[in-house]
Amino acid sequence: MRALLIVNPNATSTTSGRRDVIVRALKSAVDLEVVQTRYRGDATRLAAAAAVEKFGLVITLGGDGTVNEAVNGLLGGADSPDGRAAVSQGPAWVPRADAADLPALAALPGGNANVFIRSLALPDDPVDATARLIEDLAAGRERLIGLGCANGRYFTFNAGLGLDAEVVRAVDGMRAHGRTLTPTLFALTALRQYYQVTDRHRPAITIAEPAGLCPDALFLCIVSNSAPWTYLGHRPVNTNPRASFDTGLDLLGFRSLGTVATLRALQQMLTERGEPPHGRALVSGHDLPGVVLRALRPMAFQLDGEYMGETEQVSFRSVPAALKVIGLAAPITANGRHPGAAEHAGHRAHARHVTDPTPKSLRTFAEDSCG
User: Fold this and answer.
1) Which domains does the chain have, with CATH numbers?
2) Which of 50, 218, 219, 236 sits a CA distance of 20 to 30 A from 255?
3) Can you give the pTM of this predicted structure?
């Protein structure tokens, strides 16, 4: 199989040595070409070219932003070089090719949260994930997943209008000035944004579609295509725990951002439970084919943890069976979580010893992974 590996050289959880190990291992399984992104949005261009050139597989090594860019390149999301301009300009729908006619996607973790990869119950260590990928390719394990689309741009796990996007914008600014993103930095930034910056007194968002879901104005809306919403370290944070790649979109809206109501919602989001957060300050929807949000003033907007600018309207659509990915879904436990750590313990055991790019290590890694 002809495969393109798109590497984000600025990915936070990989080193050049580990990338060499991964590349050499993948070359034992596929006919591999390797390219590095040079700027934000470059993965979109590279993935689009791979689709035109009829590659069978596109692999990303980076964070959730790199995955999102590659997905939009494969499916032609939004009518702009990287899709961001179109997102803030209002509703759009981009015709897409059938998933069977497009390269499959495989994502290797290289960022901080790696939400998409962990939502698929894949290992969150890049070497372990490479071993798993080689095994899945050898066994022919693949599946189709649904995506969300917002104003013409596809997203894999969530989108937010309001406070969460404001936090993403603030964190992006810090990273641009050299700060390293950590769970602590994210939490502190969220607290600062909540208490000092965001407007907690004048709700501006209305749900225009589905009609009748909520007549009240909202402060914050989160639309999910999968669960969880994000991670704080190893702990999942669930706004819409019933969201799935195999159903429509889920929504959680906040009627109030008062301290007590917000703390109650956060407590529920951090609890392992299969039901969405509930209370008088919250509104939720499950398995929705579409959602339209309108705002009385420009609001910060994010997709898959990437800041998209400000907008006054977002039209969401669920797109079933939109993308072919390598690997099969893991079973769901009674508490609604994937048994990721336990399930992949064997993969860690045979891949953990590969710590340097020496030929002997690479041969052992490739033989163990494919055997």
Assistant:
1) 2-151+322-370 (3.40.50.10330), 158-321 (2.60.200.40)
2) 236
3) 0.85
